[in-house]
Amino acid sequence: ETGVTQSPTHLIKTRGQQVTLRCSSQSGHNTVSWYQQALGQGPQFIFQYYREEENGRGNFPPRFSGLQFPNYSSELNVNALELDDSALYLCASRRGGSYEQYFGPGTRLTVT
Amino acid sequence: KQEVTQIPAALSVPEGENLVLNCSFTDSAIYNLQWFRQDPGKGLTSLLLIQSSQREQTSGRLNASLDKSSGRSTLYIAASQPGDSATYLCAVSGAGANSKLTFGKGITLSVRP
Question: What's the gap in Å between the CA of A81 and the closest CA on chain B?
Fold first, then answer.
């Protein structure tokens, strides 16, 4: 167990809807990243937050957005859901100055 | 653009065998390399982190090596057990504030009793 928690565990949404996924970082970790993992693929980097500011983004459209709160918990928001958004969404946290990342159990999103 | 390759995609071995999982990357300007284990439908468990200044790391029956110049890493698993059955992913990161991980697709290992 890494101490990184995510909610909900599973989620089913309809195309066009909006979804919010949540992550609670491991204690003492001030950097959080989000990844999307499609079935049979490696995780793809979505974005990273450090001290409540986005400081890196992968090749994802603006309908993917995020927030990091003062307690370092984080949200991933996806608007106008598409079928291809169906995936496992992983949150990872790390301590500033350390490069080892610790992943949560993920949220399985299914878009129908 | 960094690309990470893991071949083969799947591997099946009998219990007790020593095995090597390979990982290659195209850009040698990495800061570190991390090996993860993923059980079906679950998150990632960090196994070993090798910083670019290091050549290898060991944890129990696992040993990971890194050769930056050739763009390769190997994960060695000694005396494999059925409980080692999982998908093994390697990921590399660059230096700097945005230390995003670039992953391979993983190798699905099955250890037969």
Answer: 21
Query: Exposure of A96 by Cβ count < 10 A (0-12 exposed, 13-18 middle, 19+ buried)?
Result: exposed
Tell me the DSSP string of A8-20: -SEEEE-TT--EE
Stretch 53-82 of chain B: residues touching chain A, C-beta under 8 Å: none
Do B34 and A100 count as a contact with CB atoms less than 8 A apart?
yes
| pLDDT value for A106 | 96
The values of phi and psi at residue A40, to 5°, are: 80, 5
Query: Tell me, what's the pLDDT at B20?
Result: 97
pLDDT, tens digit, for every residue of B20-53?
999 999 988 888 999 999 999 889 999 999 988 8
Digit-coded pLDDT (tens) for B7-23 = 999 999 999 999 999 99
Q: Are B11 and B108 in contact (CB under 8 A)?
A: yes
CA distance B26 to B70: 9
Distance of CA B70 to the CA centre of its chain: 16
Q: Could you tell me which chain B residue has the CA closest to the CA of A9? A: B42
Q: What is the mean pLDDT of chain B?
A: 93
- By C-alpha distance, the chain A residue nearest B50 is A100
pLDDT value at residue A36? 98
Name which of B31, B43, B93 is nearest A106 (Cβ-Cβ): B43
Picking from A2, A48, A99, the nearest residue to B31 by CB comes out as A99
Ramachandran bin of B96, using left for φ above 0, alpha for ψ from -120 to 50, beta for the remaining angles = left
